[in-house]
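Narrative of accomplishments. A recurring question from our advisory board has been how the design workflow behaves on a single, concrete structure rather than in aggregate. To address it, we present the structure tokens for one chain from the evaluation set, followed by the sequence designed for it. No filtering or post-editing was applied between the two.
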């Protein structure tokens, strides 16, 4: 029984323990905690919703855009920040919902565990009841056995036998109890973990709440700023409106005043208008009658004009007839004049005193002119006055155009098939190149001549076809070179034409066809470049060489097929200064000798031609030989003697003028040229060289002039005087 008592006690204590455990497990605290958290969560959610709605409201309130305002920038920044914050809020919300889900899962699991615990407890209770029932049964059996004393021992024995059975059942239930306790401990562990998780989620919630509060404060600040800005803008706007209004009022006042002035003006104008209207009406009446008057007047005027025109017409016809006659006469006179002037003319051109002449007595002027005779020039040489008479003298005042005017007729005769030579003679620095080439702004004879040829040829273009070609050559130390060729160093030879015409030609001499001033400028430029690349000191070189520009004009009469060729030779001669025999040696002396030789040969040839000598020494120099066909026959030659006016050059000037006069004075041969023709005969001593070694009166050493019938054999000359 003691044992049974003990077992009873143990059972009771175990039941108590189970009860305690149950109360402990009851989770009322945990449940409370969870509920609290859930309530808290709900509150936070509501708060968030409120924030969101507030945000939406803020966004919905239209903010007046104020362009250019610095606040708009700031507010844009704030808006950006806001959207960022919203994003963060959304993120946090997601996290929160995750946590909520977790909490929910945990609660579910807790409920499950509780259920299981309840089941266990119920089982235990049943077991206990069964055991207590059996205990009661045993008690009853014991009592009944006590009543039956003899068999007590037996009963005890059965009790003793049954007692081990109960013991076994107890131990089983103890083991189960143990197991349940373990399970409870495990559940407790799980609960603890859950609690921890809950705590961390609580912390997170706190953090989120703090963040939300921060964002809210920021939002509030931005909102406040925006409101302030809007207010200031509103103030600005009101101020501007007020100012504009004040200004408009002032202007209105001025306009009102103006209007009043205009009104008074209008009042004064009205009477004037009235008189004007009267005048206008009167004029209108007059105008209405005007066309009739006008028609009348027009008719009479027309008749008068018609009559006048008729008179003028007849007058014009008469004048035209007279003009044509005069033109013919003028042409005749011109031809006569050229004839009278002779085929060889010598003119002088005195250049102005230049800076290069220096100062002092050396640069004093030594040249004077005759005011009544433009062919006379006076020179004061070493105190003695000397006078010369030439065909014409140009003073320093003469322009390039004046000089050209003088040679113009010569140049145009080239178109008619005459050969022409124009020489510039004189000491270095006397103006030869200036006269022939001129400057870029003020060109000389060369360019002007070509220009004239172009325009003349153009004028005749309806009846004639012309081609103009140019060549440029140089003679230095009796060597002929092509200035337009690819090999300017190459020596050129002068040959007789193989066609038996007796004309000369230079094989390999470059010819360029030219059609306009641009072309000739290009040709000149090319020739000049050739010369400058060949010689380092061009000035010095050009003063010691003869430069030739040869223009050939070939024409064909379209109706008759008649052909003419005229050659214009423009020669810038080497400097005529004499080199003192003592000062010069070597190459300089050779140069001087060559120049001397060729210039005196030229003088001799011209003199021989002008005096109509039978022998013309063309072959004495390259220059005269080359120009042979342009110097003889019907050719025309002009020598421009260039003169420096200054004192220090007087001896060279004297020499040049003497040369000029010598060349000119031979002209005065007896009788007119035409008469000469008749006196020629085959028996007369004919002296001329290779081309005419078998003398034939018709042999011609020059190109044919157009007037074929009037030309005479140019290469044959009667020897009138002994050659100089
Ligand atoms: P040359 O060719 O005879 O050696 P230039 O023609 O070179 O002489 O003339 C020498 C200088 O005198 C040049 O500077 C030139 O411009 C100038 N000159 C020559 N004649 C005249 C003139 N009629 N008017 C103005 N300057 C001239
Ligand atoms: Mg020169």
């Amino acid at each position: 029984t003691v044992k049974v008592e003990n077992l009873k006690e143990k059972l009771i204590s175990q039941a108590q323990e189970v009860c305690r455990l149950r109360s402990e497990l009851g989770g009322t605290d945990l449940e409370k905690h969870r509920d609290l958290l859930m309530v808290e969560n709900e509150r936070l959610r509501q708060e968030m919703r409120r924030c969101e709605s507030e945000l939406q409201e803020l966004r919905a309130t239209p903010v007046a855009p104020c362009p250019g305002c610095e606040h708009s920038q700031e507010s844009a920044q704030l808006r950006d920040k806001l959207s960022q914050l919203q994003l963060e809020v959304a993120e946090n919300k997601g996290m929160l919902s995750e946590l909520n889900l977790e909490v929910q899962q945990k609660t579910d699991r807790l409920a499950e565990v509780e259920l299981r615990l309840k089941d266990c407890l119920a089982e235990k209770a049943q077991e206990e009841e069964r055991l207590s029932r059996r205990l009661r049964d045993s008690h009853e059996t014991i009592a009944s056995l006590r009543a039956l004393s003899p068999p007590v021992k037996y009963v005890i024995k059965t009790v003793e036998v049954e007692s081990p059975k109960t013991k076994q059942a107890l131990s089983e239930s103890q083991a189960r109890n143990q197991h349940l306790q373990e399970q409870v401990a495990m559940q407790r562990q799980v609960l603890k973990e859950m609690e921890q998780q809950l705590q961390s989620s609580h912390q997170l919630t706190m953090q989120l709440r703090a963040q939300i509060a921060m964002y809210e404060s920021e939002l509030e600040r931005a909102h406040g700023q925006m409101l302030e800005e809007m207010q200031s803008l509103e103030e600005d706007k009101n101020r501007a409106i007020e100012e504009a209004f004040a200004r408009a009022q002032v202007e209105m006042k001025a306009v009102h005043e103006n209007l009043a002035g205009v009104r008074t003006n209008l009042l004064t104008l009205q009477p004037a208008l009235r008189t004007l209207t009267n005048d206008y009406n009167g004029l209108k009446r007059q105008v209405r009658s005007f066309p009739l008057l006008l028609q009348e007047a027009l008719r009479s005027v027309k008749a008068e004009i018609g009559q006048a025109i008729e008179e003028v017409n007849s007058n014009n016809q008469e004048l035209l007839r007279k003009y044509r006659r005069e033109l013919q006469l003028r042409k005749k006179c011109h031809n006569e004049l050229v004839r009278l002037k002779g085929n060889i003319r010598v003119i002088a051109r005195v250049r102005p005193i230049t800076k290069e002449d220096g100062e002092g007595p050396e640069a004093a002027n030594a040249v004077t002119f005759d005011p009544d005779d433009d062919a006379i020039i006076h020179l004061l040489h070493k105190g003695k006055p000397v006078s010369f008479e030439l065909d014409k003298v140009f003073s320093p005042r003469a322009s390039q155009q004046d000089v050209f005017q003088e040679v113009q007729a010569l140049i145009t005769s080239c178109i008619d098939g005459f050969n022409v030579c124009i020489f510039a003679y004189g000491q270095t620095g006397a103006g030869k190149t200036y006269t022939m080439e001129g400057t870029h702004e003020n060109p000389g004879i060369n360019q002007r001549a070509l220009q004239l040829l172009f325009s003349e040829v153009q004028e005749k273009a309806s009846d004639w076809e012309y081609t103009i070609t140019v060549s440029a050559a140089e003679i230095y130390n009796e060597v002929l070179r092509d200035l337009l060729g690819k090999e300017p160093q190459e020596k050129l030879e002068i040959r007789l034409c193989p066609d038996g015409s007796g004309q000369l030609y230079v094989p390999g001499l470059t010819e360029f066809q030219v059609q306009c001033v641009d072309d000739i400028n290009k040709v000149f430029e090319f020739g000049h470049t050739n010369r400058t690349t060949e010689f380092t000191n061009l000035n010095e070189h050009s003063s010691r060489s003869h430069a030739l520009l040869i223009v050939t004009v070939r024409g064909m009469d379209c109706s008759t097929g008649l052909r003419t060729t005229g050659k214009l030779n423009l020669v810038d001669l080497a400097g005529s200064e004499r080199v003192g025999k003592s000062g010069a040696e070597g190459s300089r002396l050779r140069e001087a000798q060559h120049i001397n030789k060729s210039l005196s040969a030229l003088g001799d040839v011209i003199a021989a031609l002008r005096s109509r000598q039978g022998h013309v020494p063309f072959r004495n120099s390259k220059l005269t030989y080359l120009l042979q066909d342009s110097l003889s026959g019907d050719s025309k030659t002009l020598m421009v003697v260039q003169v420096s006016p200054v004192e220090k050059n007087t001896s060279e000037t004297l020499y040049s003028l003497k040369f000029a006069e010598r060349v000119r004075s031979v002209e005065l041969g007896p009788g007119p040229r035409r008469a000469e023709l008749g006196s020629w005969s085959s028996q007369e001593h004919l002296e001329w060289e290779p081309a005419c070694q078998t003398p034939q009166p018709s042999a011609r050493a020059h190109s044919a002039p157009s007037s074929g019938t009037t030309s005479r054999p140019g290469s044959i000359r009667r020897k009138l005087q002994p050659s100089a």
